[in-house]
Amino acid sequence: MKIYKLKSIANVALVISALCLLFVTPACSNRKGLPIKPKEGIKAVIDNRPALQLVKKQHEHELRYNWLSLKAAVETETNGENQNFDASIRIKKDSAIWISISPALGIEVMRVLITPDTVKYMNRLNNTYFVDAVCKINDLIHADFDFYMIQDLLVGNSFEYYDDDRLKTSIVDNNYLISSVRKGKLKRFAHTINTERDAVQSMWLEPLNFKLVKLRLDEFTSQRELTTVYSNFKAVEDSTQLMPHTINMNLKAQKTIVIRVNYSKVKLNQPQEFPFKIPAKYIRKQN
Questions:
Q1: Rg (CA), the chain
Q2: Are 48 and 177 in contact (CB under 8 A)?
Q3: Whole-number Å distance between alpha carbons of 113 and 43
Q4: Residue 23: which of 115, 99, 133 has the closest Cα?
Q5: Of residues 98, 116, 118, 117, the one with CA closest to residue 108
Q6: Is residue 284 predicted with pLDDT exceeding 70?
Q7: Mind listing the pLDDT tens digit for each residue in 134-173?
Q8: Domains of the chain and CATH, by start
Q9: Residue 93: phi, psi to the nearest 5?
Q10: Which helix (H) or strand (E) holds 248?
Q11: Cα(first)–Cα(last) distance of the chain, in Å?
């Protein structure tokens, strides 16, 4: 089980948005999503469960794959400025994330390749490229992020930024809520200084399939708030696995960043290529 630093979670949204905004100057499936909520008039059996049992159930129902291919329509909004583009995303689990970005005309303008320790991009608009350690991107945007965070965020798998012995559970709006701090203590906690626990993580799980439907992180020291909502769950191809086809992220920090992702096509466990040949005429972009 990989545990991340609490202070790093909100930076995931910042990093993805930074990639979009730095690199780039809704197609929807006709297929009906499988319901993950009870049908009208039918209530799911939901009872109090220990936090560790819910975390275990969540892991059991996560999307499991070795390879993943995604087609997405992406919309970003930063302080009122909107950008829209299509993205082709290929993932080899725990190894590489490849992203091709195209505007409405369908001509690729940007290609990105992220591995656990390296990030590369080609900007076809100005014939430049960038290759460096992931930490260099962190320096550019003054934030920390992790390859594995982005990988999980893209498919709605869980974030494990907590100590298991500090988790609390409750039932809210017919969903399980797992929180790193008791709900009643949040207001008081926000006005205290605690360098060891300066963030509160909350995860909402629906009770039928234990899928993550909402993630929220409040960082009090840095005054940042990240809320991610997952919806439009559908079975991936012919499997019984469910994956969210709509993701809405909202990061409130020095800037307010909103990212909306709608997946139109998902292919599971089909080996992919990650072409990334840099033309000789391209100029390397320096930090």
A1: 19
A2: no
A3: 44
A4: 99
A5: 98
A6: yes
A7: 776 555 544 455 788 889 989 999 866 555 557 888 999 8
A8: 6-28+46-271 (2.50.20.10)
A9: -50, 125
A10: strand 242-252
A11: 34
Using an 8 Å Cβ cutoff, are 263 and 110 in contact?
A: no
Tokens for 279? 């033309």
Tokens 């997952």 belong to which residue? 230
Enclosing H/E stretch for 15: helix 11-23
Check if the beta carbon of residue 73 is closer than 8 Å to that of residue 27.
yes
Which of 89, 7, 19, 5 shows the shortest CA–CA distance to 257? 19
CB 259 within 8 A of CB 153: no
State the CB neighbour count (10 A cutoff) for residue 89. 22
pTM of the predicted model, to two decimals? 0.79
Q: Is residue 226 a contact partner of residue 248, using CB atoms and an 8 Å limit?
A: no
Contact 236, 270 (CB under 8 A): no
Residue pLDDT, tens place only, 166-189: 788 899 989 999 988 644 444 444
CA-closest candidate to residue 221, choices 250, 194, 184: 194
